[in-house]
Amino acid sequence: MKKTLVLKVNPQKPETEKVRVAARFIKEGGLVAFPTETVYGLGADALNPQAVLALFEAKKRPLDNPPIVHVENINDVHRLAKHVPPKAESLMKKFWPGPLTLVFKRSNLVPDVTVAGLDTIAIRMPQHNVALALIRESSRPIAAPSANLAGRPSPTSAKHVIDDLNGRVDAILDGGPTRIGVESTVLDLSVNPPLVLRPGGTPFEALKMALGDVKLHPFVVAEKELSLGEARSPGMKHRHYAPNGKVVLVEGSVLAVVGKIKGLVDSYRLKGCKVGVLATDETMAYYKADVVKSLGSRFNLAVIAQNLFRLLREFDAESVEVIVAEGVPAEGLGLAVMNRLRKASGYNIVKVE
Ligand code: TXA
Ligand code: MG
Question: Which ligand is closest in space to the CA of residue 44?
């Protein structure tokens, strides 16, 4: 057990002294959790193999799933990537800093453990002053997966990080709740057309506008388990975003979904289960279950994305055994929400008309 130092920071104008304390840990090979615009990350010096190994251990993350490397200037991309294609240059101009991760061929500077032995590296520039200040003050790129224990929903507040990692990391910069709530979009530019490996904070529609031709990897829209041979991103192989409760996802028109969920709730309760419903503002009054929580309005997918991981954690804290979740439109940020819900359900999806 380590003593984990929690430092409250101003998210807009982080106090230099506090950032310096955190940066010292990074420079010495330690682990620091910090807010980004998407979710909290758990950072280590990306160029220090021991530090990155400790990062995997703290999260109990399998060694074959590499973290995203975070930078605060474009120069570092040129150091970490072997080659930066023109498409990447224009995407970086348009979307950075922001929730878009780009996959490049990696340079020799990058330790093997940082990229799990792959010949590619995933890089992003986060849009958060605390994250940017920490990277700058550490004067090195920071490898940072989401700051949760492997298999738990990503943390959207410092409290979630403490719940998972207290005593396992050196420090946590607490900059309040994160704005986007789902992780960055991961885009592979080493193939033509470019391929979205994970939908996230940058909507697919925005990438289509910028690139013309871009595709979603079959895993991204999967409604059932696909064979692992098709995985292009190591993260696709691992069970993700799983709350302790069993998740059942119901998709279809709103009226049919509400009717189906009512039936499912009754049948699980008859079996003696503690049942929760993950509803929306428009529908929550229709349900009678042990716990009913609303993600927000169906007409505001950004708010739904913001609330998703927090609510999944709340169901766990209340020991809900079965979570019956409403599907939301898979457009804009809704695509990332549905991807996380489908995975969390282990593809236990009920379709209704
Ligand atoms: O928003 C985010 O991206 C957050 C914050 C902290 O920046 N980070 C995050 O990291 O979600 P993590 O490690 O939880 O997810 C990284 C994803 C995984 O799905 C991983 O497999 C994929 O990126 N990835 C990493 N390196 C890759 C590579 N070289 N090729 C393909 N996918 C890669
Ligand atoms: Mg993660």
Answer: 1
Predicted TM-score (pTM) above 0.90: yes
Max CA distance (Å), the chain: 60
Ligand 1 atom with the smallest distance to the CA of 61 is 13
Query: In this structure, what token pair is assigned to residue 99?
Result: 């929730």
State the distance from the centre of ligand 1 to the C-alpha of 145, rounded, in angstroms.
6
Cα–Cα distance measured from residue 150 to residue 62, given in angstroms and rounded to the nearest whole number: 8
Q: What pLDDT shows up at residue 170?
A: 98
CA distance 269 to 56: 39
CA of 124, closest atom in ligand 1:
7
Pocket of ligand 1 (CB under 6 A): 36, 38-39, 41, 65-68, 99, 101, 103, 115, 118, 120-122, 126, 144-146, 183-184, 186, 197-198, 233-235
The C-alpha atoms of residue 26 and residue 10 are separated, in whole angstroms, by: 20
Ligand 1, atom 18, lies closest to the CA of: 235
Atom 13, ligand 1: which residue's CA is nearest? 145
Give CA separation, 107 vs 66, 104, 291, 347, in Å: 15, 9, 50, 37
Write out the DSSP string of 166-211. TTTSSEEEE--S-SS-SPPEEEE-SSSS-EEEE--SS-HHHHHHHH
CB–CB of 5/23 below 8 Å? no
Burial class, 133, CB count within 10 angstroms (exposed 0-12 / middle 13-18 / buried 19+)? buried
Residues of the chain with pLDDT under 50: none
Query: What tokens were used for 318?
Result: 């209340």
